[in-house]
Amino acid sequence: MGSLPDYSNGLNGHATNGTSTNGNGRSANGSNGVRRRADGSLDLTVLGMNSGTAMDGIDCALVRYRQESPTAPLHMEVLKYDEIPVPQRMKKPILKMLRETRTTPSAMSQLNVQLGQMFGDAVQEFCDKHHVDIDSIDLIGSHGQTIWLLSLPKEGETRSAFCLGEGTIISAQTGITTVTDFRQAEQSVGRQGAPLVALIDGLLLHHPTKMRLCQNIGGIANLCLIPADSEGGVDAMVDWDCGPGNMFIDAAMRYYTNGEQEYDKDGEWGAKGTVNQKIVDDFLAHNEYINHHPPKTTGREVFGDNECQEIIEACEAAGCSKYDTLATVTRITGQNIIRQYRTFLPSYGIDPDRIDEIFMCGGGARNPNIIAYLQQELPNTRICKLDETGVPADAKEAVSFAQQALEAVLGRAALVPINSDSLTPNCISGKIAPGKKWRELMKMCVAFGDSWEGDGPLPTVKEMIVDKPYTEWKP
């Protein structure tokens, strides 16, 4: 299979083009930055960055991409991955602002610049920590910090996405061409702007005969189901945001520890408590978003601290201890994921009990209470970590934004799930802030595109090979 190669016999990522790396993103022959190829092939090193809804850290994934021609498989290798902490001076006021939903134009304007500086600082910290020559990075793909995502507007509202972390600030601070605003770019062609992970999920997980599902549990939980290649593969994917992931769990931990603990490490608190099943069932039965048919996406606006506080109060009124409350909000996450499978997958002709494998990622993948519940409900499905693909589960979203930045500078549309609001190909997948090597970058992209003899934009990538598994990251 192409998406999960035999690494012992496959390409090592460095032998076919005469260039190798020394493990820190800098080519071993001493050259920095964009490596021009006389044959018009592609060879770029991209830093993908992501700060999720939980704001628990800035994921940084340095990825090398190679492609011999627009119709050849895309080769990738994660060179380095790490999580850079979000400074508390940024995290606390942002979470407070989102919780209270009160701010001013002046504060938002300043926050956009401050977040840009924060991401720029994270690039430098990442490079310093891992001895990466910053000049070896050709491109940055930064998701930014989601402030508001209005994906399902009501009457009188306008679909919109508000992600801050000014790309021109990152570019100016680092000297590297930077791509941002991926969500607004998706909304511009009629989609909701999330989950935005089908691109990487499909390329990593499609299989000749197995039906696979990638289940992410970050602040919000989202799924991407990839049928077997024999049943459509990457051309038949469906995805959507399930609802709360770690958001309620984290909020409850902050509440009961006065902010001293921000997540339930190894599910220890939840494991000590007893689930109040009535509160779980009532919440899932009456929440409008949970019962809305896909396509759908959501965020902190719907499942934030205020909503969690209502659940906490209901638990305490029912006599629950703090451990019972954690068990209850944890079960809401797990039970809702199963509810999403059983309620909505059949409408796409998919039997949840036929899912062969579920690949887990996000912080919730390390919560044994959630995993045990999923396995209990799907006893015939193999549940495993996304790490088996050669890409660390924790790095997936950062890798996804690295690749979306690559597609943006190439003007190449990414894969679109069949259940999206619009199937319009998006060749303008982000806003580009040119860096110091902009002309060299564009020369490579144009030369690569010149080898395409077809009409219209470059063909969408449908086959990706992970040249070497990344094994350094140990959460």
From TrEMBL:
Start-end of Low complexity biased regions: 12-33
Record-level GO BP terms: amino sugar metabolic process; peptidoglycan turnover
InterPro entries xref list: Anhydro_N_Ac-Mur_kinase (IPR005338), ATPase_NBD (IPR043129)
One term of GO molecular function: phosphotransferase activity, alcohol group as acceptor
Gene3D superfamilies on file: 3.30.420.40
Annotated region (Disordered), positions in chain: 1-36
Transmembrane residue ranges: none
PANTHER family found in the cross-reference section: ANHYDRO-N-ACETYLMURAMIC ACID KINASE (PTHR30605:SF0)
Full protein name: Anhydro-N-acetylmuramic acid kinase
